[in-house]
Structure formats: C-alpha cells, structure tokens
Amino acid sequence: MKQNLFYAAAFALALLGCSQNDVTEPSDKGGAKTGTAFTGKSSPQMGENPVSRTSIDYDRTARTMTYYWEPGDKIWLNDGNNAETEASSRVASSSFFFTTGTYHAQHYDVYYPGKNATAYNAVTIQTTQTQAAPNSSTHLGDAGDCGVATADRQSDGGYTFSLAHKATYLCFLPRTTNVTETGWVMTAIKVTANNNIAGNYTLTTTGLTGTGSSNEITLNTGNFDISNAATSLATNGAYMVIAPGVHTLTVEYTVKNTNTGNTGTIVKHLDSKDYHANTLYPVTAHLFSEYSNTKYYLWDAEHDMWEGKTPVDYASGLYAASDKITLMPSNTPIPADQYRWLNSNPPEVPGFTMSHGYGNKFYYATRKAKDCPNVWELAWYYDKGDIHWDDEAAFLFRGKIYHGGVWIKKQSVIAAENSTTVAALKNTYPGVHHGNMDDLIHPDGGTGLGFEKAPVQGVPSHATLKNYFFLPPLGTYGGEQGGIMTPNDWNKLYGLGTYGAYMCSNTYDNTHWWYTWALDFSRTTVRLNNIQNMRNGLPLWKAQ
Fold first, then answer.
1. Do residues 280 and 169 make contact, with C-beta atoms less than 8 angstroms apart?
2. What is the pTM (predicted TM-score) of this model?
3. Between the ranges 58-67, 169-178, 430-439, where is the mean pLDDT highest?
4. Of 84, 105, 159, 393, which shows the fewest CB atoms inside 10 Å?
C-alpha cells in the first residue's frame, strides 16, 4: 500500500567550534592534548537550538531534531588530516584537536565522511545497516551519515563551523491494530528504489556526487515491538540513511512472533518523491490488523456457531464433527443448539414485492445480523464501491499472517459521488423495485450465484485511500460461494486467506430455500451473491 510521508523536517546540523592554535584544553578522555581545537556553537533550528552532532533525537510531535556527537566520530580537512572527537560518551558538543599541521587561514573546508571513512571525501552509504534499539540513531555514522562545513577563523585564532549533512534520512514508524497475540516484533526493513540509493560517493562542499552501486538497503533491527496501535518512536522508531534524489521506494517489513516462530513480510509502496539532503522523512505504515477473534454465525443466529466449543485446530478453525449443530428430523435443532441456529422466523419487510419463482416475501434480521448491511447497501457497495483487490494487504488470523483482501468505498463517499445521502443508501437503489431480473437485488438476477464482476487489481492511490475501508478474506463455514450446504461441511473453515463472504441483514423465501444475500469476493471475482445459504457460517460486519 502506498503510504503518506507526513512531513519532511529539514535539519542543518551545527557542529561548531571555538578554538585557537596551539592551545591545550582538557580532554574528555582523561588527559590533556595540545593542538588546534575545533569545537561547537549553537545554530537555531525550527524554534529549537540544536548543536552539530551525528545522531538524532527526533521529536515527531514538535517536529524538531536534536543531534549529538558519538564516540569515534571524526572530522577531516581536505589536506587529509583528521581529528577524532574528544567525547567518551554521547554529547551535544565536543572538541576536535588537530595535533599535526599548522592552521592560520581565514577559512577551512571541514568534512565529516562518516565514522569509518579512510579519506576526507569518500562516503559509503551501507547496503546493510544495523540499529540495536528503538529510536536510536547512534548507527547513522556507520550507515553513511556525512556532512560538510566551512570553518571560519575567529578573532582569538580559533575556528567555528556549522555542519550541513548531505545524506537523506528515513524514520520508519510501523503500527498494528487489534493485536491480542503477544510476541510480534519487527526484525528488518528492506528498501528497494527505482535507482541507486547506496554505495560509494564523493563528498564535496556542495553535496554527494556519484551514482552509487545499489538500489537496495536492508536495516536490521533488534526485535522491535509492533503491538502499538498509534505511531510510537519509543516503541519501534527505525532510522535509515539513503542517498538524496528522486526515488520511488518499496518498503518490506519483516516480522516474526517470538513465541511461535511464525514470520511474515509486509510490503508497502511509496510514491515517487524528491528526497532532499539534510532532511528527515517520517514513513508511517499500518502493517496489519488482527482478526483472530472473528466469530461466524448462521444467518441472524443468537450465538456464534461454535459457542462454548473448543477447536481441534485453532489456527485453521477446524472443529470436531461432534461439535456441529445437531438437527432433528424436522430440520430444526435440538434444544441445546437452538441459540446457534439461524433465525427461521424473521419479520417480513412491509410493502415489498418481487416476482420470484418461489414466492415474493422479503425478511429482515432482528438478532445478531440486524446491524449488518441490508441488501440495498450491498447493491450500492457492489455497483458504486470501486472494489479493489489488494494482493499485498496483510492481516493476522490465529497466529499466521495472510495477504489479500478488498478495499471498498465508504458509504459517505458513495453517497456524495451519487448526489444522495447515506440514509438513502439503506432503503433504495435505482431499479430495485421494478421486478426485473436485471435488478441487482433480484433473487433470480445475474447468472448462477448472482451478479459478479472482476475487482480492480491493486490498492487505491494513497491520496484516496482514506475514502475506502478494508475487508479481509476470512472464509466461510459450510463451503464457498453459497449454494446448498450439507451439515458435513459445518466444522471446516473454507477459503481462509483467499475467499470472503459477509452477511446481509435481509433474506427471502426462508421457509422454503433458506437463501439470503451476501457480498463475497476473491482475487478474481466480486459477487452480490443472491443464493448464499442461510446455513453457511459467515462473519458479521457493519456498513462503513
């Protein structure tokens, strides 16, 4: 799914220095050092006062960044001389002592080519980057962070400089919803671009030059928790260095469950964007929702069809044959199972008639199905919902990550686009009262199982995605795609991960053929199913 980049907050890192030639200053490493010292000064940034450093404290709410020097960081001059930070721990400001060379010029170009550089202008953006803890940016210097500055001589003979970073930074902020299973973590993020974003580059005073050598970067993370429903830097914020430029990015999140060992990969696509140097881009991503607690009902039953029963195989939804609803010869349940049985005596919708070979009665739910969309709402969804099948959409069901599902326009959007109201979608649809078999809700309309068409392939654009809601393919009990169900099928969940069928609050001719409507779908077909069996076990849902 394409994701929004909420904003890009530019940062100019201010590494500063106050120094003078041939002075002795205390060293943070416990000794004294003689040489030319370059130290730091403040530079206002977005209402804050960050000083130059090479790791980040990112405040997404305030949209500010605070930066730090890390032990082992070096700055270089273009004569090849370099000096290591005097910091022995993470600090906001540090001194650099050049113990060789004599510096009297008014200006010097200062280079920061990364922590492991071997030359002042040689930068490597790593294809494999590693972050040990959430919201930690201490690895940026190893990953390819870099910058340049002009050091200006001061009246006391010292130099001051402000470093401008020349790489681009991504901050990944994944989240999930309704996750009740413990142990789900993120272990890696892989970014693939349509052009190179990593490799060897030359650092100049104006930025990075060169074309790099790789269009892929993998960020290995520790086991970062992904149970958060809202974005949380502290929970799983992950930072990656990439080369600036216009890129179209694909992001793959690798996740696993530390309790069960189950793994999965979730893919998100980002629109083409000009990623500027010296800029941090937050990348949010909803990885998956959990549907493990989904219950399946016969049409308008009081209880779900497995109330009080324990599955033989929890992951697949298989139940013992002995746990099925037991029917008496009259095709009614035994008293102990009556609350799991369908509503066989629903009230009739007044004033509705249709030409139908088995009768013309039309009924509405009063129990668990009463809040499901009615047949008119299904017709609007089917006809005007712009239904998309998304191969890459992920959802969690009983310990396993599945891929696939449909995006459907919300009722408010359908109503606005068709010059009507949401209320009107619930009781009318053009042509439904004509008694014509071409009508979408007519029991004999369409061919075979009802009207059907192919869904649009792929997720809607990220700009319009807010206009849609998602339905996962959670399968059915009693077989797929409607038709006459046999009780032998009741204990098996069919089509999980490939097929979905969702309950309607209306039925017709129930005393004869036990038929209702349903919205069902697969990768190739969306159907306004007009012969869905009332004795199939379907999930409940609400119109959105």
1. yes
2. 0.85
3. 169-178
4. 105
The Cα–Cα gap between 471 and 266 comes to 17
Would you say how long the chain is, in residues?
A: 544
Question: Per residue in 501-531, pLDDT tens?
Answer: 999 999 987 555 578 999 999 999 999 998 8
What share of residues in the chain are helix, strand, coil (percent, to 5)? 10, 40, 55
Question: What φ, ψ does residue 122 adopt, rounded to 5°?
Answer: -105, 115
Task: Output the DSSP codes for 99-135.
Answer: -SS----SEEEEEE--TT-SSTTEEEE-SEEEE-STT
Dihedrals phi, psi of 413, to nearest 5 degrees: -75, -45
233 CA to centre of own chain: 15
C-alpha separations of 52 from 43, 147, 161, 162 in Å: 8, 10, 9, 7
Going by C-alpha positions, the residue among 412, 345, 407, 422 that lies closest to residue 376 is 422
348 CB neighbour count, 10 Å cutoff: 10
What are the start-end ranges of the E strands in 198-244? 199-204, 207-209, 216-225, 238-242
Residue 317 φ/ψ, nearest 5 degrees: 75, 25
Q: Over 90: is that where the pLDDT of 265 sits? A: yes
pLDDT at 89: 77
CB 176 within 8 Å of CB 289: yes
Who's near 298: CB < 8 A, 6+ residues apart? 305, 325, 340, 341, 342, 534, 535, 536, 537
Give the DSSP per-residue string, 25-48. Answer: EE-TTSSEEEEEEE---B--BTTB
Reported in sequence order, the residue ranges of 291-351 that DSSP labels E, i.e. its strands, are 296-297
Q: Which amino acid is at 368?
A: K
Q: Pinpoint the alpha helices (H) of 229-332.
A: 233-236
Rounded CA gap, 526 and 451, in Å? 8
Which of 335-349, 367-381, 465-479, 509-523 is least confident? 509-523
Q: Which DSSP string corresponds to 361-386?
A: -EEE--STTTTS--HHHHHHHHHHS-
Give yes or no for residue 485 having a pLDDT over 90.
no
How far is Cα 2 from Cα 528, in angstroms, rounded to an integer?
A: 28
- Convert 124-158 to b/e letters by CB count within 10 Å (16 or more is b): bbbbebebeebbbbbbbbbbbbbbbbebebeeeeb
Residue of 454, 438, 450, 381 lying closest to 415 (CA atoms): 381
Is residue 131 within 8 A of residue 219, CB to CB? The reply is yes
Q: Is 98 exposed, middle or buried (0-12, 13-18, 19+ CB in 10 A)?
A: buried
Over 480-529, what HEC string results?
CCCCCCCHHHCCCEECCCCCEEEEEEEEECCCCCCEEEEEEECCCCEEEE
Cα separation, 73 vs 15, in Å, equals 12
Q: What pLDDT is attached to residue 423?
A: 96
